[in-house]
Amino acid sequence: MQRRQFLQLAMAGSALALSALSGCSSRSSKESPLLLSGADKGDEHTVSGWQLGQGERFRLTVEQRVHAPLMRPGSHEAVYVARRPGTAIYVVDVKAGQIKQQVLAEKQRHFYGHAVFSNDGRWLYVPENAYAEEGRGKLAVYDAAANYQRVQEFDLGGIGPHQLALMPDGLTLVVAMGGIQTHPDLDREKLNLATMQSALVFVDRLSGKITQRFDASHQHLSLRHLDVAPNGTVVVGAQFQTAANPDQLYTGPLVFSQRGAEPLKAFEAQERDWLAQHHYIASVVINRAGTLALTTTPRGGRVNLWQLEQGILLRSFPVRDVAGAGYLADQNQFVVSNGLGQLFAVSDELQLLAQAPATRWDNHLSIG
Fold this sequence. Notes:
about 50% strand
């Protein structure tokens, strides 16, 4: 069974309690809370919070598989967004370790697993699939100060909006439009591979106006995950749709940068390095200085560190089934998670921080 199918299952049971490894504690006394979701061999979905050097703080059972969590600025709230074709957002009080609220998608809509808050924590922006409208990508706006009431939506001018981020100006959202049409009644079938078009789209979060659009360099590259540097440089990872090209071996780039009005710029690596990604980039994270980017690939089992300005590969680490990634600013290091229940610190070397052998961490993690 493939990861994307199996991770519908969730971690549960006291035997899965996460333990920090002796000698692998964090290098700082500051708190570095991690938000994760995961799975075990049972049939329960869960969300959890974990503290470096201390272990698991809470684990809560939920009905739907969660994709990516995030903290609400200026609060003890975190939101965990269900992945496609999920319809739930779980609002969790991370201090109390309790679910405060469940927010459901509108009828004939589902989420893609990602969201972002405005800087003041008031507005939550969530990509949606309007599958009754031929898969039109929508951006729903929720008022977190009014019990997450859905107050507005914007049309994103395309299909398959996936991860998004707030630009440094605090007013512009950048959205990775994956370009792939799906329908919840048709499982994971991709309905428009012959005509798909992926792009990086910039949106005014107040008006919903699309201000810039940059198309992917290949029709069958699906831009999915991204992060933004302090200077506004966007780094985006792609997934190549091999089903649309069964007789073509794509050996080109899967990671790109974009800044200002410039087009997408491919990162540089050897052909063997791109092939080692197995056409699939899972997470993209940039350090606080904006000098390094990290990408993961569960299919290739690789963690790659990139020099951001020049867009060149610096080093690569083998980590089986690795997907989740974040940046620990107080420790100046990245952290990644995998489907074997492991957490690693990534800097000049790879360091195992913790492990829960029966746990399968999901595709993304977040650092509060």
